[in-house]
Specification:
single chain; alpha/beta; Rossmann fold; 6-stranded parallel beta sheet; 9 helices; 6 strands; 17% strand; globular; binds adenosine-5'-triphosphate; binds magnesium ion
């Protein structure tokens, strides 16, 4: 259970292709709710060559993450997954933070859609031994369904380590932003201005 005596930090993992206000609002809401000293944004590394889903090079995604967090003193970017060769497991990332910040409780922040995948994650039980999970609901998500069906299969002790939190409705997704760029539609106010400018400067998401 949450221990108010202990210091806590958050980890927000994602592809961040690109990072947007949905990610930033969620991290900020969770930070203030759980009194987190810092939230580390951890962009995923480049997928293996054979990966059928085209993801923008990790250097671009990492730089956009840095640009996005400059105005929040509690936010940091970590290149831990970007620096690794091959696929990174959330377990390894959380373990890295746990080892480097042993006096901190760790809260792994995800969207409610992503928490479903937790059930299929690599070393999920060990992962739940290492950290708490905060699943933020995004629009159109059936909260009750998540609690009753998807998470029910987890042992009770693990369920207690997962909190579901409602964040102000944000229908923003990276997929939607990439599509808008491709179609020549504005993306202003969906993500930080510096990230918007970076996307245009580097010609990202055009013809993709
Ligand atoms: P894509 O559309 O490419 O899947 P995405 O917008 O879902 O991108 P990701 O990088 O996949 O972004 O997401 C990283 C994390 O942020 C995931 O845990 C995801 O559930 C969460 N997330 C994404 N968009 C939102 C949003 N609008 N509100 C709350 N959480 C979000
Ligand atoms: Mg996603």
């Amino acid at each position: 259970m949450e221990n108010t005596e202990r210091k806590a930090l958050g980890i927000m993992g994602g592809t961040f292709d690109p990072i947007h206000y949905g990610h930033l609002v969620t991290a900020e809401v969770v930070r203030s709710e759980f009194n987190l000293e810092k939230v580390y944004f951890v962009p995923s590394g480049n997928p293996p060559h054979k990966d059928p889903v085209k993801v923008t090079d990790s250097q671009h995604r990492y730089l956009m993450t840095i640009l996005a967090i400059t105005t929040n003193k509690y936010f940091e970017a970590s290149s831990i997954e970007v620096d690794r060769i091959g696929k990174s497991y959330t377990y390894d990332t959380v373990k890295y933070f746990k080892e480097n910040y042993p006096e901190y409780d760790i809260y792994f922040i995800t969207g409610a859609d992503a928490i479903k995948e937790i059930l299929t994650w690599h070393r999920v039980e060990e992962l739940l031994d290492l950290c708490y999970f905060v699943a933020a609901t995004r629009p159109g998500y059936d909260l009750e369904d998540l609690k009753k069906k998807e998470l029910k299969v987890l042992p009770k002790a693990y369920l207690e380590r997962i909190t579901i939190i409602e964040v102000p409705a944000m229908a923003i997704s990276s997929t939607g932003i990439r599509k808008r760029v491709r179609e020549g539609k504005p993306i202003k106010y969906l993500l930080p201005e510096a990230v918007e400018h970076y996307i245009y400067k580097k010609g990202l998401y055009i013809g993709k």
